[in-house]
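Title: Prediction job returns without error message
Component: structure pipeline
Severity: low
Priority: P3
Assignee: unassigned

Description:
Job completed but the reporter wants confirmation the result is attached to the right record. Sequence as submitted:
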Amino acid sequence: MKYKLSKILISSILASSAVAQAEDVLQFSNAPVPTNDFDKRSVLTSQQVKVGKAIVDFKYNTIMRSGANPAGSAAPFGTIFDIEGQPIKSEDGSVHVASDNDFSSLITGGDGKVYMVSHFETRPAAMYVTEMDQNPSSGILTAKRTRPLDFSAFNGGWVHCAGSVTPWGNHLGSEEYPPDAKQWRDNTIDGYNAAMVRYFPVARGAADADLPALALQHMNPYDYGYTVEVNVADYDNTSVAKHYSMGRLAIELSKVMPNEKTVYTSDDGSHVGLFRYEADTKGDLSSGELFAVKFHQTSPWTNDTERKYDLDGGAGTLSWISLGKASDAEVKAIIDSGVKFSDIFTEDSADCQAINAGYGDECLAVKPGMEKAASRLETRRYAALQGATVEFEKMEGITLDESTNTMYLGMSRVRKGMSDGKGDMSVPFNYCGTVYALDLDSNYIATSMHGAISG
């Protein structure tokens, strides 16, 4: 599970020490490195933190595990429900309780209480909101009650991966590895994508082998793959929005910059891109302009066919290609019209371009008038057709050092399109990944990137 280090955590640590008036500067001791199989399966954390001038002992505390059911809860934590609010059952008839908790944010609700919003990275997926109690003397947080958020207005949630907290205090979640709509055209739907159809009553009691045929008839792949925003007024009142205007990707997470308009989205997988969204209005992600990055390599070109590890990471300058403006409402209307992959692209045109946007080698051209649909429903494919770089690998976390205006982007592997000697980039192969530093200008636009630390 990943956690957002917030003022709530800082205040918890301060409260657990005798230095509540100390400066809010934290310096953690080194976490132990696992040296055996038992350690690998254990939670290893720092044991102390320096708060101002004081050193505070602390330990890892489990708030809740899948299946936990605090008093007053609507259901056991992690239970997956269908569109009618009925627990989803696996093929063997058991109620499905997900163990795929990926990200949890700690936020302050409109009522001033502390809440946790948690992701379950499954198909169908779930987000839970949990009301927290905080011990005023120790700072320890405990779960008071929990319930699933309602995604029925969006035909469910999909593979909620990592997330962040917006500057205005809302939870910002994700939908990773969206279904490939071309599979619906070709009737080649695989089991990974077809599992989502269990969200609909038509699949109750169905065998796994029957799911692809049901998905073809009852599931729209374009319903999934978006940034999700959650506003918590109080435990019983939450609002959920899918920001269709921000594009459809294998979203790891979206991170809003301090100007409350610029958002960076990391794209997970192989042959992926980096995307920037400029909202029309501060604090409102419902409409804006979407951009895809173009990488211009400045470090030595490396055709690493021998797969040798290197700690360099490579470097380059960045430019940004506009994918046009759109609003959530406009894109939702396109989805609801029943648009299909074959409505957006042709592969027969003499103008088709050869691309690899994470789906293998393709030759595609956008049909006239379908540019907005392509930019928001097939964002990476459209970005590749516009000349953006879609050679990155396994983008993960994003964070910002405001003191230097440097954004850090983790990639858990550097391989394939990044190091194959082709395209826009070819940097040293490193299966253990690299954290890249991106220099931002005064408008929070990234202008260059280089490897800061490599595995």
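Comment from assignee: result matches the submitted record. Confidence is low (pLDDT under 50) at residues 1-8, 13-22.
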